[in-house]
Write a structure and sequence with these properties.
The complex is a heterodimer of chains A (about 400) and B (about 425). By secondary structure, chain A is mainly alpha-helical. Chain A has helices at about 1-10, 15-30, 35-60, 65-85, 100-105, 120-145, 150-170, 170-175, 195-220, 225-235, 235-240, 245-270, 280-295, 300-320, 325-340, 340-365, 375-380; strands at about 185, 190. In chain A, strands 1-2 form a two-stranded antiparallel sheet. A 7-stranded mixed beta sheet of chain B has the order 7-6-8-9-10-14-15, sandwiched between helices. A 5-stranded parallel beta sheet of chain B has the order 2-1-3-4-5, sandwiched between helices. Chain B has a 3-stranded antiparallel beta sheet with strand order 11-12-13, with helices on one face. Classes of the chains: A mainly alpha (about 400), B alpha/beta (about 425).
C-alpha cells in the first residue's frame, strides 16, 4: 500500500486515476445515455485543452487557432463518413448519384480527386492524424525559426482560423459550406447512431483521452518537458546552452495539433456532423478558455475545465434560455479574478496547503482520535482537480 | 346607429374581459371533458410527454447570437399561437406547455438541444430552426428519434422528410411566379443575380437562372455571391452599373442587406431608375435597412403584414397587443404562427399525439384561419401557398401590388431546375 502511495506521489498519477474512475465508472453509472453522449462530446474538446496545456502552459506559446486542427481532424473523418452515407442507392434522386448531396446541389458532376483517398478507412485515419500535424509543422517551422512568438503568434494562428473558415464556407461544392457535412450515419457499415454505438464511442474517447494524458505526462517528466519549461522561463539561456529552441516549440505545436485532430475526429463520430462553426475564431478562443478554467499547467485540470465549462453551457442554457450567456460570462470573470491559475491552481495553492497544514496539525496533536477511512473520504475535496506534477511549483508559472 | 348607443371603451373592455373569463372557464371544463374522451393511453402510445391535462412541446430557435434578430419573430409568433390555442382549451383537451431551448446560432448546439428535447423531454412536437444549416444539423436527429419539426422559413427545397412540416415556401414557389411577374411588368430582357454565398441563395439563383433562360427566353448578364456578413458592395454596384440590367434579382441575407441597400442608394441606384426584385427582404429586414433606403423595390413573399383580409387583421392586432404596437411581422413570423395551428389540426385529425399518425394525417390538412389566407398541406409536407409581390414603402411596410391567382403547388424537387 505504501509502495503504491509512493508510486502515486512520484508519478503524479493519483489525479489521473481519480479522473479515470470518474469517467469510466461514475459517469456511465450515474448519467443516462443522452447526458453521457454529451460528456463524450465535451471530452473531444478536452483533447484540445490537453494540447494547449502542453503548448501554452509548458511551451509558453499561446495558440488561438486550435479550432483549425480540431476542424481538420473532424472534416477528415466527416469526409469518410459522408462518402459512406452517399452510396448510389440512397442518393439515386440526385442528378449525379453516388456523390455527397451538397456536391450535387452545387452542380458538381464527379467526386473531386482529393476526396478519393477518403474512400479508404485506413487512409482516412492516416490523413486525419498526419495532415493537421504536417500543417502545424509548416506553420510552426516558418514562425518559430523566425522567432515569432507571444502575441504575434496568437494573432497569426487566429488569422489562420479565419482563413480556413472562409475557405470552407466559400468552397461549398467541396466542403458543404456553412451547413457543414451532415447526415453521417455509419462507420464501415456500423450504425454510429445506435445506443450501443454511443456507449462504445464514449469509452473509446475516454481510452484515447487517458492514453493522451499518460503520454503527455511522460513527455513532461522527460528531459524534453524540462527543456520546454526552461525555454518558457529563460529562453535565451536555453539557446545559449546550445539547444535549438525553435524545434522544441515546433514539436509542442505539432503535438497540440495532433491531439486536437484526434478530438475533432472523435467529435464527428459522436455528434454525427462537422461544420465550419467548430473551426473559426470563436470556438478556438473557447478552447483556450477550457484550458484556462481548468488550469493551464495541469493536464487533468484541463479535462475538468472542458467538462465544467461545457456542463455550465448546457445547464445554464437549458435552465435560463434567455440569460445563460450572462451567467457564463460571470463564471469566466469569476475564474479569472478569483483563481487566475484555474481550478488546478486553486487546488495546489489553496486546498492542498490547507489540507497539508491540517494533517500536520493532527499529527502534532496525537490526542485527537484517529480518522477512519470513511470520515477521511467525506472530508476530502469532492473532485480533485489535479495536482501539478512534483518538481514544478506555482512560482514558475 | 346613433352615437349614444356606442358603449364607452371602458365598458367595452370590461365586457370583453368578462366574456373572456367566462369563455376560459367554460373551455377549461370542456377541455377536461374532451381529455376524458381521448384517454392518454390511447392518444399517446409512444411515451411522449402527454398527460391527461397537459402536452409538452419544444421551441428551438436562436435566442442569442447572430440569428437572434431574425428568429425572434418566429419565437413570438409561435408563442402567440400556443397561447391562443390554450385559451381555446388546448389540443385534445390538453394545455400546451412549452420548453424553450436556445440554439445560440450555433449548429452543434441546435443538434444537442434537439436531442435533449426529443430524448429527455419527450416533447410531442418541436417548433423551430431558421437557417438551413440548423435544419440540416437537427434533421438526422428528428428522423432517428422520430420527432416532429415545424420549420417556418422559406428555403431552397431539395428536401422532404416525414418528420418535418415546412410552413414557409420552397424556392420554386417563391421565385417562378415572381420572375414571371417581373418579366411581364418590366418587359425585362436582362437580369443580374446577386446573393449571399450559401446554399439557399445559390440554389434559388440556379432555379432563377434556368427559368430566365429556358422559360422566359431572356438573359442573365451577371451573377455574384458574397460571404455571409459581407458589407462592401461597391465593386458589385459598379458591375451592375456597367451591365445595366433590366432587373436586379437579389437574395442577400441578414445584416449584409443593410449595407447592400444603403450603398445602392448612395450610388444612385434607386427605385425610380432601377427595378429590383428580392426574395430575402421582409418587414423584419426593412427595420434594419431603413424604409427610405428600400422604398420602391419589390419583394416576393407569400405574406406581408399589410395583407388585407379578416384573418390577418385579427393576427396583426393580437400580435401587437402582445408584443407592442411597434412590432412588425415578416413572412417567416407568419409561417411560424402557422406551426402550432397545423400541429393542432393534425393531432385532432389523427386523434392521437403519436408522431407517425400525425405525419400521416398532415397531408390534406386545411387551415382557413391562416393570416395569409387559406392554407393546405401537400403530401410532400410543404404548404400550398400564394405568391405575392410587395412594394416597399418609406414607413417600412410593403404594399401588395400583385398576387398569384391560385395557390401554387409546392415542388421541392423541381424537374428541369436541378
Amino acid at each position: 500500500m505504501t509502495a503504491f502511495k509512493h508510486w502515486l506521489d512520484r508519478t503524479g498519477m493519483g489525479s489521473v486515476l481519480l479522473l479515470a474512475l470518474l469517467l469510466i465508472v461514475v459517469f456511465p453509472l450515474c448519467l443516462d445515455l443522452f447526458r453521457l453522449n454529451l460528456v463524450g462530446k465535451y471530452l473531444c474538446y478536452a483533447f484540445v485543452a490537453l494540447g494547449l496545456v502542453m503548448l501554452w502552459g509548458y511551451g509558453g506559446v499561446l495558440s488561438l487557432g486550435q479550432g483549425v486542427f480540431f476542424g481538420l481532424g473532424g472534416y477528415g473523418m466527416a469526409m469518410f463518413l459522408k462518402l459512406e452515407a452517399s452510396d448510389p442507392v440512397t442518393t439515386k434522386i440526385q442528378s449525379t448519384p453516388g456523390i455527397p448531396d451538397f456536391m450535387d446541389w452545387n452542380q458538381l458532376t464527379a467526386l473531386p480527386i482529393w476526396w478519393e483517398p477518403f474512400r479508404s478507412f485506413p487512409l482516412t485515419l492516416l490523413l486525419v492524424l498526419t495532415v493537421p500535424t504536417l500543417i502545424a509543422f509548416i506553420i510552426g517551422y516558418a514562425m518559430f525559426k523566425r522567432r515569432v512568438g507571444g502575441v504575434y503568434f496568437a494573432i497569426i494562428t487566429q488569422a489562420i482560423a479565419l482563413i480556413l473558415t472562409v475557405l470552407i464556407i466559400g468552397q461549398q461544392g467541396y466542403t458543404g459550406g456553412v451547413n457543414g457535412m451532415t447526415d453521417l450515419k455509419t462507420l464501415l457499415g456500423w450504425d454510429t447512431r445506435t445506443n450501443s454505438a454511443k456507449y462504445i464511442l464514449y469509452f473509446v474517447s475516454v481510452g484515447l483521452l487517458l492514453g493522451s494524458i499518460v503520454l503527455c505526462t511522460w513527455i513532461q517528466k522527460s528531459k524534453l518537458g524540462t527543456l520546454l519549461l526552461a525555454m518558457r522561463d529563460k529562453e535565451d539561456r536555453v539557446r545559449f546552452s546550445g539547444y535549438d529552441v525553435s524545434m522544441f516549440r515546433v514539436f509542442a505545436f505539432c503535438l497540440a495539433a495532433l491531439l486536437s485532430a484526434v478530438g475533432g475526429a472523435m467529435f464527428t463520430l459522436q455528434v454525427g456532423f462537422m461544420s465550419p462553426s467548430l473551426v473559426g475564431i470563436v470556438p478556438s478562443i473557447e478552447m483556450v478558455i477550457f484550458a484556462a478554467v481548468g488550469g493551464r499547467m495541469s493536464l487533468v485540470g484541463a479535462v475538468y475545465g472542458a467538462l465544467l465549462v461545457n456542463f455550465g453551457k448546457t445547464y445554464f442554457s437549458e435552465s435560463f434560455p434567455d440569460l445563460w450567456l450572462f451567467l457564463m460570462a460571470a463564471m469566466f470573470i469569476g475564474v479569472v479574478l478569483g483563481f487566475p491559475e484555474g481550478l488546478a491552481g486553486l487546488y495546489t495553492n489553496k486546498v492542498k496547503p490547507w489540507w497539508q497544514a491540517r494533517m500536520a496539525a493532527r499529527r502534532a496533536a496525537p490526542a485527537t482520535p484517529p480518522i477512519t477511512p470513511a470520515a477521511k473520504r467525506t472530508e476530502a475535496p469532492d473532485t480533485e482537480p489535479g495536482a501539478l506534477p512534483p518538481g514544478i511549483s506555482s512560482q514558475q508559472t | 346607429m346613433s352615437r349614444d348607443h356606442v358603449p364607452s371603451p371602458k365598458s367595452q373592455q370590461r365586457r370583453r374581459l368578462l366574456q373572456g373569463a367566462a369563455a376560459l372557464s367554460m373551455s377549461g371544463v370542456a377541455g377536461l371533458a374532451l381529455a376524458q374522451q381521448f384517454p392518454t393511453a390511447k392518444v399517446n402510445t409512444t411515451k411522449l410527454a402527454v398527460t391527461d391535462t397537459e402536452v409538452v412541446v419544444g421551441q428551438l430557435h436562436s435566442a442569442t447570437g447572430t440569428m437572434a434578430i431574425s428568429e425572434t419573430g418566429s419565437i413570438q409568433a409561435e408563442q402567440l399561437a400556443i397561447d391562443q390555442i390554450n385559451a381555446m382549451g388546448g389540443v385534445l383537451g390538453r394545455k400546451i406547455r412549452v420548453i424553450k431551448e436556445d440554439g445560440a446560432s450555433d449548429w452543434p448546439t441546435f443538434a444537442e438541444k434537439s436531442k435533449k428535447l426529443l430524448v429527455n423531454d419527450r416533447v410531442a412536437a418541436v417548433f423551430g430552426c431558421w437557417t438551413s444549416a440548423s435544419r440540416k444539423a437537427v434533421l438526422p436527429i428528428f428522423e432517428k428519434e422520430n420527432g416532429m419539426l415545424y420549420y417556418p422559413t422559406f428555403y431552397e427545397g431539395l428536401e422532404q422528410s416525414k418528420n418535418v412540416i415546412y410552413t414557409g415556401q420552397e424556392a420554386t414557389q417563391q421565385i417562378l411566379w415572381g420572375l414571371d411577374w417581373a418579366s411581364k411588368e418590366k418587359k425585362a430582357k436582362t437580369y443580374f443575380l446577386v446573393g449571399s454565398d450559401y446554399i439557399w441563395p445559390r440554389t434559388s439563383m440556379k432555379i432563377g437562372r434556368k427559368h430566365i433562360e429556358n422559360v422566359l427566353k431572356t438573359k442573365v448578364v451577371g451573377e455574384e455571391y458574397y460571404p455571409l456578413g459581407h458589407t462592401n458592395f461597391n465593386s458589385l454596384i459598379n458591375k451592375i452599373k456597367v451591365a445595366k440590367p433590366d432587373v436586379i434579382f437579389a437574395a442577400v441575407v441578414g445584416g449584409s442587406n443593410v449595407a447592400f441597400y444603403k450603398q445602392l442608394k448612395a450610388a444612385g441606384v434607386t427605385a425610380d431608375k432601377q427595378f429590383l426584385l428580392t426574395i430575402s427582404v421582409t418587414e423584419d429586414e426593412v427595420l434594419g435597412i431603413g424604409g427610405e433606403n428600400m422604398a420602391g423595390f419589390y419583394s416576393s413573399m407569400k405574406y406581408f403584414q399589410s395583407l388585407d383580409n379578416a384573418n390577418n387583421k385579427k393576427f396583426v392586432e393580437a400580435f401587437k397587443a402582445k408584443y407592442g404596437k411597434d412590432a412588425v411581422i415578416g413572412d417567416v413570423t407568419q409561417a411560424g404562427y402557422l406551426g402550432p395551428w397545423l400541429w393542432k389540426a393534425a393531432v385532432e385529425k389523427a386523434g392521437s399525439f403519436d408522431v407517425d399518425k400525425i405525419a400521416a394525417a398532415s397531408a390534406g390538412i386545411e387551415l382557413k384561419t391562416a393570416p395569409e389566407g387559406y392554407v393546405k398541406v401537400h403530401e410532400n409536407h410543404h404548404l400550398w401557398s400564394k405568391t405575392r409581390i410587395g412594394q416597399a414603402q418609406k414607413d417600412g411596410q410593403f404594399k401588395v401590388v400583385a398576387e398569384s391567382p391560385e395557390l401554387i403547388q409546392p415542388d421541392p424537387f423541381p424537374k428541369g431546375y436541378q
